[in-house]
Amino acid sequence: MFRVGGTVPLMDPTQATREVFWNIEYTWLVYVLMVPTLAVFGWGFWLKIRRWRAGQPAIRFDRPAERLQLFLRNAVGQGRTIKRRYAGVFHTLVYTGFIVLFLATTVVAIHHDTPLHIMKGHFYLIFQSLIVDIFGLFVLVGVALAAIRRWISKPKLLVYTDEASWILVTIFVMALTGFMIEGWRIAVTDDPWAAWSPIGNLFALASDPLMSDAAMQTGHVAIWWFHLVVAFGWIAWVPFSKMSHVFTAPLNIFTANLDGYGGSLKTIDFEAAERFGINHLGDFTWKDLLDFDACTECGRCTDVCPANTVGKSLSPRDIILDLQGLMHKRGDEFLGAVDGDGGNGSGELLPIIDQKTAVSPEALFACTTCAACMEACPVHIEQMPKIVDARRYLVMEEADFPEGMMDMMNSLESRQHPFAGTQFSRVDWTEGLDIDVMAEMDDPHEAEVLMWVGCGGALVERNRNTVRATAKLLQKAGVKFAILGREESCTGDPARRVGNEFLFEMLAKGNVETMQRYGVRKVVTSCPHCFNSFRNEYPHFGGRYEVYHHTQFLDQLLESGRLDGHDAADGSNGSSTITFHDPCYLGRHNGEYEAPRNLLAKVGGARQVEMQRSRNTSFCCGGGGGMAFVDEPPDQRVNQERAQEAVDTGADVVAVGCPFCATMLDDGVNARRGDREVKVKDVAELLWDAVGEPGQAAP
Amino acid sequence: MKLLVCLKQILDPDVPARDFQIDPAAKAARRGGANLVTNIFCENAVETALQFREAATGEVKITALCYGESSAEDCLRKAMAMTVDEACLVERDGNTNPDAAAVGRVLAAAIRRLEQDGGPFDAVLVGRESGDWGVGQTGGLLAEELGRPALGFVESLQPGNGGVTLRRQTDVGIEVAEAEPPFLVTITNNEDNVPRIPKTRDVMMSYRKPLQKLSLADLELDSEEIRTGSSIFEVEEIFIPADEVECELAEGDTLEERVDQLAKRIHEVVASIG
After folding, report:
1. A675 and A540 in one domain?
2. Residue A698 has what pLDDT?
C-alpha cells in the first residue's frame, strides 16, 4: 500500500481527502479579494463586448449544429492548433492542464462552500490528486517548451512582446507555487495519500531533509497567499491581454464563416451604403472586431503568406494586431459611436488605412487572396476579406491602386476581359473544332452543359491548348455542350478581388442575364476563379447553376465510363513524374483536392509526387487577387518561389488546373528549372495527351 | 473659366487583328464583336482639363461635347464620372464619313449653340488625333470654323498670369506659351495626363446627371451636306495592308563572311529603293 515516511498506518481509501484551508487563517480574505478580481475581469470583457457591438451586423449564430461541430473540432479539439507539431504539443499541454486545474479548483469550491463534500475517496485520490498533479506537470512542461521557443529558438513568426513573456512567467509561477504549497502540506501533515500526488510529493521529499516543519509551515502560508494573489491578478489581467483568447477564440470559432473562403466576401448595397469598402473600424462587422480580439499572436498567417514569404510588406498578422491595437487604445476615435457618442467629438471617424504600415496601400495590394492565412489560423480569423474590404475603399472611394490593376480594370470596363492588348478573340481557339455557340443554335437548350471558357482560357495563347483539350475530351465523351462565344464576359473575379465590387456586380449581372436567356443550368469551366464566382458568388445575383471545374467533370466522365478509362491508363503523356499544384480557388476556397489527382492517377505511366506545400496548405502561384496583372519586383516574385518548390520535387511535369497558375508557373519554372526539361501543363492537356486518338495530339 | 473638351468614340484600337474587318462598299471598318471606347487622346484632354480645374483658384466649369452615335453617350457618361460638369451629345445619324472638315463644322455649330446658352468657352480642348483614322485635322479645322487661335500638341494647361500657361511638345523639346482666352488646343499624351479611373460614387452619379442631346437639325445643319462631306477630304479606298515578309539569310562559312554578305545586301536593297 502507499506509505510515506512510515509513520502513518494503512487507511481506508474511501475516506481519503484533505483539509481545504490547511494552515491558512483569514480565509474570508479569499472571498473579499475575489470580488475586485471578478469585477475587473467582468469589466474587461464588458469593454470588449461593448466595442464589438459598435460593429455592423452579421449573421453568425445561425446553423447551430454546424457551429457546434466546428467548435468541438477546432476549439475543444484544438484541430488546427495541433497542426504545427511543436506549438501544438505545448499548447495542448498547457490547455489541457488549465482545464483540469480549473476543474480541480471548482471541485475544491464545491467541496468547501457547498454541502456537497465531493473531494474524497477514490475521486479525491485519482482525479483531485493524481490526475491534477500530472496535468499540473503538463502546464510546467508546456510553458517550458513555449519559453524555449520564445527565448531561445525565436522563430520569425512570433511577436516578441513583454506581455507574452509575462504570460509565460506567471503561468509557470502559478503552477510551480501550486506544487510548492502542495508539497509542504504533504510534508508537514505526513499526508498518508502523498503518493497519489507524485509531483507535490517529490517536492515534499526534497524539502523534508532541508527544512524544519515550522519553516515549511511558514513558507506554505507565504507561498499560498502569493499563489493566490498571482492567480487572482492573472485572472483580472486576462481580458486585457492576449490570454483573453481563452474566451474570445472559442467564441470566434463558433461564429466562424461556415461558407468556405470562396464565399467570404460581403456584397455591397450600392444604393444604401454610406461608404464603399472599409476605412473605419466602425464599418467592420462585430465579427470582424471580434476577430481582432481573438488573435493569439501565433503568426501562422504571416508565416504562410506568399507575399510575405517573398519579402513584401504584407503581413496578415500585423494587420490584425495593428487594428486590434487601434481598437483597444483609441477605440473611441477609430470606432466612433460607441454607445452612440460621436467618436472623437468632431463627428469624424479616423481612417485606418495608412495609420500603420501593415494597413498601407502597398501592403494591402500585395495580397493574392489565396486564403492561406485563413486556413492556417487556429482560431478562424478572417484576414483576407478584411484586406479586400480595405482595397474596396481604396479602389472605389479613392481610385487609388497599382498601375497594372488600373489597366486590367480599364480593359474589364471597356472590353469585359482583363487582358488588354490580347491578339485573340473569344472564339479563335475553336478553329477547326466544330463547337456550338449558344447564340447560333436553333435550340440552345439542347446543350447539356455550358462550357465556360474564361478570359484566361480564350485570350492567353498559352492556355488555348487547355480549353481545346477540354473541349475535345468533352466531344470524345459525347457530351452535348456549347459555349457563349463572344457573349461571354469576365465573371468579374479579378475586379472583385482587387476591390472594384461595383464593376464585379455589373459583370456578374450581365452574365447572369445572358445565361438566363439560354436557360443554362450546368456549367463546366477550366478556370477556378470563374468556378468560384459561379459557385459562391453568382447565387446572390440570381445565377444558380450546377458548377463543375473541368477536372471534376472529366473525372466524372471517366468514372461513368463516358470517357474510356482504359485508353487513359494505356496512354501516356510522355511524362514520368508529375506534381500537381493546387489552385487556391479550387482547393482552399472550394475544398476540391481529389478530382485533379484522381485524373492524374488514371493517366498512364506517370508517378505523382507532392510538393512540400500541397492541398490545403498549397502555396499560391502569385496570380490571384489581381496580382497576375501587376509587375512584381524581380526579387519578390511569388511564382518563382512556388516554381522552385515544384522543380525541387524532381517532377518533369508540373500539372495545373487554372489558367492563371499556368502562366504564372510557366514563367516561374522557366526561370528556375536550370538545364532540366520541366513543363507546365493543365490536367486536361495531360489527359488529352493520354487518351487522344493518334494524330490528334493537342495542337 | 469655362473649358470645353471634345470627345470621339472609336472602335477599340486593341481589337484583335483577326477580328478587324472592313466593309469596302461603305468604306468603313465593321464593328463586329469589337468594343467602342473613347479615343485615348480625347481622354487625355479630359484629364488635362480636370487637372487645370484642380490647379485653378477660381471656378472652372468643364463641358464635354461629342459628335457621335447614341452609343457615344457612354463616353460622355465616363467623362462625367471623371467629374466633368456637363455633357452634350450631337447625334450622328449613321454617317461613317470621317471628313474632319465636316466634323469641325458640326462641332463649331454645337459650340456656338452652347455658348449662346451659357456664355463663351475660354478654351476648347481637342484630342491630337483619333485612334481610328488618325487624320489629326479636326482640331485645326474646328479652330478655323470658330475663328480662334490654335496650338497643337499641348500636354498641359496651367493657370498663368491672367491667362493660361501651355506646355507643348515639339521636335526639339517642350515649348511653354502664355495664352489669352479664347483659344483652342489639341492635346497629346504625357505621363501626367493619363486618364484617371473614376471613383465608384462618381460613376453612379454620372448616370443621374443630365446629358444634353442635339440633332443636326437643332444646329440648323443639313444632314446630307455633312454626310457628303467637304470637297477637301474624300475616302477613296480602305483596305487592310497585306503583311508581306520576305526572308533572306546571309550566307557564308564564317561570321565575318556572313556579316560582309549582310552588309552587301543592305547596300543593294537601299540602292534599289533609291
Report:
1. yes
2. 45
Euclidean distance between CA atoms A633 and A62, whole angstroms: 45
Chain A residues lying within 8 Å of B196, measured CB to CB: 399
Is the domain of A239 the same as that of A333? no
- pLDDT category, B14, cuts 50, 70, 90? confident
Q: Report yes or no on A551 lying in a domain.
A: yes
pLDDT digits (tens, 9 = 90+) for B120-133: 999 999 999 999 99
Residues 257-316 of chain A with CB under 8 A from chain B are 270, 276
Least Cα distance to B196 among A473, A398, A283, A591 occurs for A398
Task: For an interface test with B, give the residue of A423, A461, A487, A496 to mutate (most B CBs within 10 A).
Answer: A423
Cα–Cα distance measured from residue B111 to residue B138, given in angstroms and rounded to the nearest whole number: 14
pTM recorded for the entire structure: 0.91
Q: What are the beta bridge partners of residue B38?
A: B9
- Same domain membership, residue A650 and residue A505: yes
Query: What angle separates helix A461-476 from helix A683-691, to the nearest 10 degrees?
Result: 50
Regarding whether A442 and A336 lie in a shared domain, the answer is no
Record: contact A396-B14, CB cut-off 8 A? no
By DSSP bridging, strand B28-30 and strand B21-23 are antiparallel
Give the residue numbers spanning the domain of A382: 259-397
Longest dimension (CA), chain A: 103
DSSP-derived pairing of the beta strands B150-159 and B183-187: parallel
Give me A582's grid cell. 493546387
| Contact with chain B for residue A430, Cβ under 8 A | no
| A350 Cβ neighbours under 8 A, 6+ residues apart | A280, A330, A333, A334, A343, A344
The domain spanning residue A181 has which CATH number? 1.20.950.20
CB contact under 8 A, B199 and A399: yes
CA A662 to CA A530: how far, in whole Å? 15
Structural domains counted in chain A: 3
Q: Which residues of B touch A406 (CB under 8 A)?
A: 197
As a whole number of angstroms, the distance between CA A324 and CA A314 comes to: 17
Instruction: Find which of B197, B202, B208 to mutate to test the A interface (most A CBs within 10 Å of its CB).
Output: B197
Burial B72-111 (b: 16+ CB within 10 A, else e): bbbbbbbbbbbbbebbbbbbbeebebbbbbbbbbbbbbbb
- What pLDDT band is residue A639 in, cutting at 50, 70 and 90? very high
B12 touches chain A (CB under 8 A): yes
Q: Which are the contacts of A394, defined by CB distance < 8 A and separation ≥ 6? A: A277, A353, A361, A364, A365, A400, A401, A499
The grid coordinates listed for A325 are: 491595437
The 10s digit of each residue's pLDDT in A610-635 is: 999 999 999 999 999 999 999 999 99
A308 and A192, same domain (yes or no): no
A134 burial (CB, 10 Å; 0-12 / 13-18 / 19+) is middle
